[in-house]
Write a structure and sequence with these properties.
Layout (H helix, E strand, L loop, with lengths): L1 H17 L7 H6 L3 E5 L5 H17 L5 E5 L7 H17 L6 E6 L24 E6 H9 L7 H12 L1 H10 L4
Parallel strand pairs: 1-2
Antiparallel strand pairs: 2-4, 3-4
Helix pairs in contact: 3-4
Length: 180
């Protein structure tokens, strides 16, 4: 089952994240095969936070893995419960002095930006097929942004793209990833 979840996640990254150019830096990590995927099956919040810290330590020790997706395929379906997990993970990273070392990106099937309506296609810039936490190396982000024209404009371009494509298109694109 974990292999299928990882395959579906890879398809989501390829079709949605890279295909829609939501993250212009993702293709490089995919081509280098430098993404780690960890499927968490335990519903226990404390264990999930322990896994989060284990992944930070794994990245500390690894020079070949650029980034990690921690995938909660069977847990945190409730968006508010998921946001609580993310908040605790951010606090934990800060407590262990990882601010500025790793950045946490959050993705969830029901992701909704604070100022957006639930049916706004713009939410699909962060709507994934499973709840997940994405750990990224801050140095890598900084280096990528330095060589990318108008990195500040990426979120606005993503929102415009999603809205132009429309809600049905974004739903179908994401749903197709589960067919893998």
């Amino acid at each position: 089952m974990e292999d299928k979840i990882i395959a579906q996640t890879k398809e989501w990254i390829q079709s949605v994240v890279i295909g829609c150019n939501f993250c212009p830096f993702a293709a490089k990590a995919v081509l280098r095969d430098s993404i780690r995927y960890v499927v968490v099956n335990e519903p226990d919040l404390e264990l999930n936070l322990h896994t989060f810290m284990d992944e930070i330590h794994f990245l500390d020790a690894s020079e070949t893995v650029e980034t990690t997706f921690i995938i909660f395929a069977d847990h945190y379906a409730d968006f508010e419960e998921y946001l609580h997990l993310v908040s605790l993970a951010e606090d934990l990273a800060a407590e262990h002095e990882y601010d500025g070392v790793y950045q946490i990106a959050s993705f969830h099937p029901e992701y909704c930006f604070a100022d957006a309506k639930a049916d706004d296609p713009a939410n699909f810039t962060n709507r994934s097929i499973f709840p997940m936490i994405h750990l990224l190396r801050e140095d890598s982000i900084t280096a990528a942004i330095e060589h990318y024209p108008d990195a500040e404009g990426i979120p606005d371009r993503n929102i415009a793209f999603s809205r132009e494509k429309g809600l049905q298109y974004m739903k179908q694109l994401r749903a197709a990833c589960l067919a893998v």
